[in-house]
């Protein structure tokens, strides 16, 4: 008999052996409410701003079990005082019951006394029976998500009425084991958050140097320089310093999201800020005649020469492979070869700056899918220092890029650890 059949999880903390109980949420002592305020729902005149109001959360403010204030709406404090049923209390669970079904957020100390709109509902557990910190992790697990999503109603607009929510079976175990499991996930979440904060800081630092270490318009030297360099920078055309390799063809029917074989750099895996977007993976599990020219190798960089978005956030972006892996190149992601006498990472950083990228966006042409022709890249005027200064700048950006990549990999690893724990620590 499997452990799951015996109502015990595959993994447990030492000292616990009792079978878990399954009980419907409606059979627990939990309190349920939602943001359906009827005629009291906030009017336009009762909305406010961040400085003067109270966060009025919607589905997009629930992300990976957290409440995110980014892009939140705000209501006046007077309106908030009126809508008492939506006041959030520490250890509450907020979940989307309209629209973004399955999205959840856990109320921490900094979220106390926020409010919710009509897309959301709140579960407030009886602390002598069930910890919110434990319950939210179960609801985030694949088992919990399956139970939530299987109970949606409606056609055009999916809904999860509280009546159906109360039918969701949840595990009940003694409070000490709940606390151990909740504490483990809190530790993992805190590590992920701390690493994400460091990653954000590194990206801001990189943007600072991109803005300051290259000359601005009508200047021939940058605002900040390494000691010992005083010469003015020289004018060149990009095409005199680099060439763009021919496009690699990968048959779409061979691509899969199953992790096997070669990771593919394509338009969808090329993020808006010039990094690899691992949330939309493409894999190719077989390739004949494999040669390095088909791959983006470590320390090499590529340019995206097309974009389907009307605002062109990606076209002309360059991406550096700062990892030890190699990535298969697909349509529109083309390797750049820097000519001898120049530092490749410096040329990457130069093209990574907003000045060059904004000019390249203006060169895009086409109707539905915009394309960037090689000749329009090559004709761009740039300022370049001597090779020695190029190398110093290149080393700085390579250090930043490798550190950013390491933090991205750490976040990915921690999320995989959490996913494994969610799969194995619950029944």
Count up the domains: 2
Write down the overall geometry. elongated
Classify the beta-strand content into a percent band. Answer: 15-25%
Radius of gyration, CA atoms, in whole angstroms: 26 Å
How far apart are the termini? Answer: 14 Å
Write down the CATH class of the largest domain. Answer: Alpha Beta
CATH topology of the largest domain: Adenine-n6-DNA-methyltransferase TaqI, Chain A, domain 2
What is the annotated CATH architecture of the largest domain?
Answer: Alpha-Beta Complex
What's the total count of β strands? 24
SSE class:
alpha+beta
Low-confidence runs (pLDDT<50, min 5 residues)?
none
Percentage of residues in helical conformation: 25-40%
How is the largest sheet built, in terms of strand order? 14-16-15-21-17
Largest sheet: 5 strands, mixed
Q: How many helices does DSSP assign? A: 9
Under CATH, the homologous superfamily of the largest domain reads DNA methylase specificity domains
The pLDDT mean sits at: 91
Family: Belongs to the type-I restriction system S methylase family.
Protein name: Type I restriction-modification system, specificity subunit S
Organism: Lacticaseibacillus paracasei subsp. paracasei
Keywords: DNA-binding, Restriction system
